[in-house]
Amino acid sequence: MSQVAQNRRRKDWLREALPKIVLSPSLAMVLVFVYGFIFFTFYLSFTDSRILPSYGLVGWENYSKLFRIRAWDTAVTNLLIFGSLYIVICCALGLTLAILLDQKIRAEGFIRTIYLYPMALSFIVTGTAWKWFLDPGIGLQAVVRGWGWESFTFDWIKDGDMAIYTIVIAAVWQTSGFVMAMFLAGLRGIDNEVLKAAQIDGASNFALYRRIVIPQLRPAFMSAFVVLSHMAIKSYDLVIALTGGGPGTATELPATFMYSYTFTRNQMGIGAASATIMLMAIAAIMVPYIYSELREKK
Amino acid sequence: MGFLDIKNATKSYGAVKVLHETDISIEEGEFLVLVGPSGCGKSTLLNMIAGLEEITSGDIAIKGRSMAGVPPAERNIAMVFQSYALYPNMNVGQNIVFGLEMHGVPKPEREKAMNDVADLLQIQPLLKRKPGQLSGGQRQRVAMGRALVRNPDVFLFDEPLSNLDAKLRVDMRTELKKLHQRLKTTMVYVTHDQIEALTLSTRIAVMFGGHVQQLGTPKEVYDNPANMFVAGFMGSPSMNLFPARIAVENGQAVAETELADGTKVTLPFPKERGFAKHDGREIVLGLRPEVITDRDGADRTSQSVHVIDAHVDITEPAGSDTFVGTQLGGKAVTGRFRADVDVHAGQVFPFAINMEKAVAFDPKTEARIS
Amino acid sequence: MSSNATATVVRTGSGARFVIYTLLALFSLFYLLPLYVMVVNSLKPLSEIQAGGMMALPNEWTFAPWSTAWSTAQIGVEATGLRPFFWNSIIMVVPAVAISTVLGALNGYVLTKWRFRGDTIIFGLLLFGCFIPFQMVLIPMARMLGIVGLAGTVPGLVFVHLVYGIGFSTLYFRNYYQQFPTELVRAAMIDGAGFFTIFRRIMLPSSGPIAVVCIIWQFTNIWNDFLFGASFSDFDSQPMTVALNNLVQSSTGVKEYNVHFAGAIMAALPTLFVYIVAGRYFVRGLMAGSVKG
Questions:
Q1: Rounded distance, CA C112 to CA C110, Å?
Q2: Is the preceding omega at residue A247 within 30 degrees of 0, hence cis?
Q3: Cα dihedral angle (A236, A241, A243, A248), rounded to 10 degrees?
Q4: Could you tell me if B186 and B253 lie in one domain?
Q5: Which residues of chain C from 73 to 102 reach within 8 Å of chain B, CB to CB?
Q6: What are the sequence ranges of the domains in chain C?
Q7: Who among C2, C116, C226 is closest to A124 (CB)?
């Protein structure tokens, strides 16, 4: 009798706990390898780690050093330039393309496929293609000169002041189709009856978009902003493939800075500090976003 | 002790109590309907009987056996869901016998049970189809079949007809009633539709705000609603409720109220109701529309039909009847006249009121006064 | 977003339509240009590129850059071509995608159909894990892989991609299963099915579309990853992206642009192929990974 009862209780317990047991490996992995590691790196940013982790605490020294390094300054400035241009151009281009594509276009699916395919590519592939296309020696400049316009110059990729803009070009090329898809989905979600009502009220197409349609795309703008800013902060591969951070340190971004300080310059403490700052920037954007997404779903 | 006993059961989500102490006991073969507006706790209670939601306190017993900690599969119940919940990837036959399969019933027996049920519900030709290929009514049948095949102690229904169109809903209601009469299995049925509740049940629990407002036979609930909520919720159009005052004239209790123009009217209660003891009390008087008729449509067997002349505000012909609106005690009141009575808005017309069916409520507690 | 039935009711005149089509065509050229450059130049001899003919069709068509890139190009110190690294990527991607998809499906199932106190917080934790800058985990991950002996191996990369891919796969399945009627699960519970039976018999048969979305997303992401590959692989275990970058950036000898382009196309082909074949699911994955589920 008690044996049976005991078995029964064990079965009940298992039934209750099974979902949590199934979830636990994933949770454990994430707790250790995401949050544990974040904590570890955070801790390292306060230590004198150089080529290997070391545990001598040095307080805020790495951070104060970091802010005195010119390359970090360049990286942050570059991120601001790159990030703002990237977000603004992607949104503007994406919205324009979405509105154009939303006009009952023949072969819409085909055109969409063309606009979106770069998103399927690796940034390394994108970087390689654009690297040689923008190379003044063989790419666009050489081609145009070959066509007879001898004075044509387009050597941004070799120009320390302009190279960051080539990153913007390549990144926009890769992502703007995706932003278009987000806006197109937003446009398709707008109630047609509202538009018909506005037309009956005498709104021109321009007024229709400016006053009725675009204000309703707020959620799409929000998502685009979050996705793009998060991608901008994490940008690493594209820079490596396109310019390698150069010429000099002209196109260094925080992500490349962190990597080179940690793994090639053996300044792990400073690298960890820079990674921590990147995390803070992303958390400032993602945490409120995720929080609001999960809350409204309840 | 009944066949299904709900003893002092409650349900809370955190600090929110969605079901207050509930006691319901029914006998084997009864058809219990839990009826109420959405959010009243009726589906929660059904899910608690099914074991899909845990009981916060109290107990539920089926056949005298406490269901505390017993998983749904081991309660010997079957349930028909609002959306029918047919497994989309299985055909009708597989849907019906899935439960038997899970309970380890061997294949030949499953096949036989499936065919019996299919014959009973006349869905034999549908057995090989997928749920997506069925109409709403067919899905409903399959969902019933899936429940029937289990031969459970208790059937649970969660608003099973609410996704059907009006005509089909009435047909399925009749069919369900026939099915219950034939099977004589205990059924618990949740609905927000008071007509379904009245037509199907042997017992109704009217619920609101997490409380059972009244538990009784359909007739009890309809004729003697326990409070103003039940009075207003059961019946369509709902019961007229308007303020009045009890007075005693010549030893006879009457309800005093006034017409739209301020004219006093007195409506005498039948003596045997014993309202004389409430002399002077403010009440809310409840009169069902069918109790207010044209003079010739009044119930001949009633001893207490009282006629008043009142202003007709509106008439709404509804085919079989005409609903006629006037005002009593400052409230709009609807009477149910025979369809061919020649009555028009703007007239002053005689309204015959059968006071045998009148009910009175306390305006503060909203409970019925007897 | 594919249905034309919901296209706008805005009407445009024929002049405006001409402008719209012209603009759309011009942007198509912009997006196709790099692909054109890659394809065309991978099929011509190096001398034609050096002579300023990047935009021209080849005078002399040749597959030599392709075979060089595939089997003889100098990657780092050895002239192996990209072939071994292509296989590295494949044996890295397949298990990482498979395991993260299965775990994501189970997690999504638990988080929607077996809810418990705190489940939303757990999901939030999982989700945030895929948005962190991975620079934040590079140092400890490198050390940990070293300690358990997985540093510089393909299994090590599989593990890393698995860990940081779970968030997204869980997101997909959770959002999908949220739409899946809970009544079906309850019906199955009453029918006597247990946790895994419900998953296998009720949930999985209806999960085809989201599984495709998830697999495509994970495949694209992991195939295209560079940071983890560059950080945690050694020469023998480099994935395709890292090898391509080494090929392109190598400073020794003449720059064989045509070979670089051929290599880039090889690195792009698997994901591009998936995109062409299952673009609908790819877009759905992109949207679900960014906008709401």
A1: 6
A2: yes
A3: 70
A4: no
A5: none
A6: 12-72, 83-290
A7: C226
**Is the per-residue pLDDT at C7 higher than 80?**
no
Instruction: Give the pLDDT of residue C8.
Output: 67
Band (C292; pLDDT cuts 50, 70, 90): very low
Question: What is the arithmetic mean of pLDDT over C183-187?
Answer: 92
Domain co-membership, B187 together with B287: no
Interface test with A, best of C18, C109, C121, C136 (most A CBs within 10 A): C136
Distance between CA atoms of A203 and B322, rounded to whole angstroms? 48
- What is this model's ipTM? 0.89
Predicted local confidence at residue B208, as pLDDT: 94
Of B173, B203, B233, at which residue does a domain stop?
A: B233
**CA distances from residue B188 to B157, B184, C119 in whole angstroms, order as listed:** 6, 12, 32
B160 and B187 belong to one structural domain = yes
Q: How confident is the model at residue C2 (pLDDT cuts 50, 70, 90)?
A: very low
Residue C197 sits at the chain B interface (C-beta within 8 Å): yes
Task: Give the mutation candidate from C139, C161, C248 for the A interface (greatest A CB count, under 10 A).
Answer: C139
Per-residue pLDDT at B159 exceeds 80:
yes
Whose CA is closest to C244, among C95, C3, C42? C42
Number of domains composing chain B: 2
Which two three-digit tokens encode residue B44?
């929660």
Q: For B9-33, what is each residue's pLDDT tens digit?
A: 999 988 899 999 999 999 999 999 9
B147 and B189 fall within a common domain: yes
CATH number of the domain that residue B107 is part of = 3.40.50.300
Quote the minimal CA–CA distance from C7 to chain B in Å.
28
Checking if the pLDDT of C4 tops 50, the result is no
Residue of C177, C190, C206 to mutate for B, most B C-beta atoms under 10 A: C190
Q: Which residues contact C218 (CB under 8 A, 6 or more apart)?
A: C96, C97, C100, C101, C165, C168, C169
C-chain residue closest to B158, CA distance: C183
Of A114, A240, A293, nearest to C292 by CB-CB distance is A293
CA A159 to each of CA A78, A251, C261: distance values in angstroms, whole numbers, following the listed order: 14, 10, 24
Q: CA of B99, closest CA in chain C: separation in Å?
A: 4
For B143, the closest chain C residue by CA position comes to C187
| A-C Cβ pairs (cutoff 8 Å, strict) | 306
Ranges assigned E (strand) in A40-135: none
A199-248: pLDDT as tens digits: 888 788 888 888 888 888 988 898 899 889 989 998 999 999 998 887 88
Are both B220 and B268 inside the same structural domain? no
Is there a single domain that holds both residue B26 and residue B130?
yes
B77 vs B186: CA distance, rounded Å: 10
Does residue A296 register a pLDDT over 80? no
Tell me, yes or no, whether B214 and B329 share the same domain: no
CATH of C83-290, one of 3.40.50.720, 3.40.30.10, 1.10.3720.10, 1.10.10.10: 1.10.3720.10
Q: Say if the Cβ atoms of C129 and A177 lie within 8 Å.
A: no
Residue among C184, C189, C190 whose CB faces B87 most closely: C184
Give all chains having 3 or more CB-to-CB distances under 8 Å with chain C: A, B
User: B365 and B256 in one domain?
Assistant: yes
pLDDT for residue C293: 33
> What element of type H or E holds C154?
helix C154-179
Q: Domains plus CATH for chain A? A: 69-297 (1.10.3720.10)
User: Whole-angstrom Cα distance, residue B360 to residue B281?
Assistant: 11
Across the interface, whether the CB atoms of C135 and A25 are under 8 A apart is answered no
**pTM, full prediction:** 0.86
Residues 62-91 of A with CB under 8 A from C: none
C213 interaction partners in chain A (CB closer than 8 Å):
none
The range of the structural domain enclosing residue B344 comes to: 240-369
H/E stretch holding B368: strand B368-369
Interface B:C, Cβ pairs < 8 A: 61
pLDDT in tens, C142-158: 999 999 998 889 999 99
